[in-house]
C-alpha cells in the first residue's frame, strides 16, 4: 500500500494560520523593542516614552500584518525604525529582524521593480533617520571633527552591516516570488491543456457516436421502408429486411457498448466479450457488405501493399468511409457506390464515389455534420480531403492522410 504524499508545511497551513504566526512574531518583537528602549540609558536622542512605545507597537503591527498589507507595513517599519535605533548606541536587534520580514514579504508579493523601490525606501529612510539623530539634526551636535569622523565611520559601518543582510533577504524574496509566479503559470498552462484535452475527447466521442448512430440508423430506415413497401406482395422480402434490421441494430448496440465501456474503464475492459476492438481497415469489407444490404451495388477495391497501420489511423479512415457511405444511403439516391483504399509509400487514401444525384450545395459540397466530421478527422493528422459532385453525375469523397504525421 502506497503512503499518501504529505505536502510541505507551508502548503498545509491556511492563510489565517500564517497571519496568527506573524501576529505572535510581531508581539515578541514588540516586547524586545520595549525592553531595549527602556534598558540602560544609552540613547542618542531622548524620545518621550510615548514615542518609544508607539514605535515598538508600530514595528510589531507591521510584522503582524505584513502578508495582508505589505506596502503599509514597509512604510511603518521605515518610519518606526529610526526612532527605535536612536534609543541605543548599538543597532537594536528587533529593527533588522522586522525590516527583513517585511521586506521579504513585499519582495515575494510584488513585481521586482516595486520590490526594488521598497528596498530603497527602507534603506534610505533608515539611513536618513539615523543620520538626523546621530549628527545633530535631532540629537547633540558634534563640533569636534575627530568625533564627527569617528561617529560617521561607525554609522556607515553599522548601516552597511544592516544593508547587506537586507539585500540578501530582498534577493531571496524576489527569487521565491519569481518561482511562485513561474509555478502558477505552469499550473495554469496545465489546467488549460487539460481543458483542451477534455474538449478534444468530447469531440472525438461525439464523432464516434455520430458515425455509429447515423450509419446504422440510415441502414435501418432504408430496410424498414423496403419492408413496408413489399410487406403485402412479397412477405419473404419483408422478413429478409426485418432480419437485416435486427442484425444492423445488434451491430450498432455492440459498437455503443464498446464506446461506453471505454468511457467507463479508460481503455475498455478486455475481459468483457461485448467490448470488441475498435473497427479498422480490415472491417471495410463488412462495412461495404452492410451497405449492399440496403439495395446498393457496393464495391471495395484495395490498391497497394496492404499493411498494418496505427489503430487510431485505421479507425479514422474507417469512420471517413462509413460517413461517406452513410451520406450515399441518405442523400444520393444512387444505385452503385465504390470505395477505393490506397496504400501509398508515405500516405493512406480512401475514396468513395457514387452515381447518384450529387451535392445540393452551390459549390458542390453538401453542408452538414458528416462532412465537417470527416474534415476534422483528416485535419488531426495533417491530411487533405476533397468532396464534391462529379462532372457526369454522382459525388466523390477523397481523403489522404500522411503516414509520417500519423506516427
From TrEMBL:
Keywords, alphabetical: ATP-binding, Kinase, Membrane, Nucleotide-binding, Phosphoprotein, Transferase, Transmembrane, Transmembrane helix, Two-component regulatory system
Highest taxon of the lineage: Bacteria
Record bears the keyword Nucleotide-binding: yes
Domain Histidine kinase/HSP90-like ATPase span(s) in chain numbering: 315-404
GO MF terms, alphabetically ordered: kinase activity
Enzyme Commission numbers on file: 2.7.13.3
Any one Pfam family match given in the protein's UniProt record, by short name: DUF7134
Transmembrane segments: 18-38, 44-63, 119-137, 157-178
Span of domain Signal transduction histidine kinase subgroup 3 dimerisation and phosphoacceptor: 201-266
UniProt cross-references to InterPro entries, sorted A to Z: DUF7134 (IPR055558), HATPase_C_sf (IPR036890), HATPase_dom (IPR003594), Sensor_HK_TwoCompSys (IPR050482), Sig_transdc_His_kin_sub3_dim/P (IPR011712)
Residue ranges of coiled coil: none
Annotated catalysed reactions: ATP + protein L-histidine = ADP + protein N-phospho-L-histidine
Enzyme class: transferase
DUF7134 domain boundaries: 12-175
Record's keyword annotation contains Aminoacyl-tRNA synthetase: no
Protein name, per record: histidine kinase
Originating organism: Streptomyces orinoci
Organism ancestry: Bacteria, Bacillati, Actinomycetota, Actinomycetes, Kitasatosporales
Amino acid at each position: 500500500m502506497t503512503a499518501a504524499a504529505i505536502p510541505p508545511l507551508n502548503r498545509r497551513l491556511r492563510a489565517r494560520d500564517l497571519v496568527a504566526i506573524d501576529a505572535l512574531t510581531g508581539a515578541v518583537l514588540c516586547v524586545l523593542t520595549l525592553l531595549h528602549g527602556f534598558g540602560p540609558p544609552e540613547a542618542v536622542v531622548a524620545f518621550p516614552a510615548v514615542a518609544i512605545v508607539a514605535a515598538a507597537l508600530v514595528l510589531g503591527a507591521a510584522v503582524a500584518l505584513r502578508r495582508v498589507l505589505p506596502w503599509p507595513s514597509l512604510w511603518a517599519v521605515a518610519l518606526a525604525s529610526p526612532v527605535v535605533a536612536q534609543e541605543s548606541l548599538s543597532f537594536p536587534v528587533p529593527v533588522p529582524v522586522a525590516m527583513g520580514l517585511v521586506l521579504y514579504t513585499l519582495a515575494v508579493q510584488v513585481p521586482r521593480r516595486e520590490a526594488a523601490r521598497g528596498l530603497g525606501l527602507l534603506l534610505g529612510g533608515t539611513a536618513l533617520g539615523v543620520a538626523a539623530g546621530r549628527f545633530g539634526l535631532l540629537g547633540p551636535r558634534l563640533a569636534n571633527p575627530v568625533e564627527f569622523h569617528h561617529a560617521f565611520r561607525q554609522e556607515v559601518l553599522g548601516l552597511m552591516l544592516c544593508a547587506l543582510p537586507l539585500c540578501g533577504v530582498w534577493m531571496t524574496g524576489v527569487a521565491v516570488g519569481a518561482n511562485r509566479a513561474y509555478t502558477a503559470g505552469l499550473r495554469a498552462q496545465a489546467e488549460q491543456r487539460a481543458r483542451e484535452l477534455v474538449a478534444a475527447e468530447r469531440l472525438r466521442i461525439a464523432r464516434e457516436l455520430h458515425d455509429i448512430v447515423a450509419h446504422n440508423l440510415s441502414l435501418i430506415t432504408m430496410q424498414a421502408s423496403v419492408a413496408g413497401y413489399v410487406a403485402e406482395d412479397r412477405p419473404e422480402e419483408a422478413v429478409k429486411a426485418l432480419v437485416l434490421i435486427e442484425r444492423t441494430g445488434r451491430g450498432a448496440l455492440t459498437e455503443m457498448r464498446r464506446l461506453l465501456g471505454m468511457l467507463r474503464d479508460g481503455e475498455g475492459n478486455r475481459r468483457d466479450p461485448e467490448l470488441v476492438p475498435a473497427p479498422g481497415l480490415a472491417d471495410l469489407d463488412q462495412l461495404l457488405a452492410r451497405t449492399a444490404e440496403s439495395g446498393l451495388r457496393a464495391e471495395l477495391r484495395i490498391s497497394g501493399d496492404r499493411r498494418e497501420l496505427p489503430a487510431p489511423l485505421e479507425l479514422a479512415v474507417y469512420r471517413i468511409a462509413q460517413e461517406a457511405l452513410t451520406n450515399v444511403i441518405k442523400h444520393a439516391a444512387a444505385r452503385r457506390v465504390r470505395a477505393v483504399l490506397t496504400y501509398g509509400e508515405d500516405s493512406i487514401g480512401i475514396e468513395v464515389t457514387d452515381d447518384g444525384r450529387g451535392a445540393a450545395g452551390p459549390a458542390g459540397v453538401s453542408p452538414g455534420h458528416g462532412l465537417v466530421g470527416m474534415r476534422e478527422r483528416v485535419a488531426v493528422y495533417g491530411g487533405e480531403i476533397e468532396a464534391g459532385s462529379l462532372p457526369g453525375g454522382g459525388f466523390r469523397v477523397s481523403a489522404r492522410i500522411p503516414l509520417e504525421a500519423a506516427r
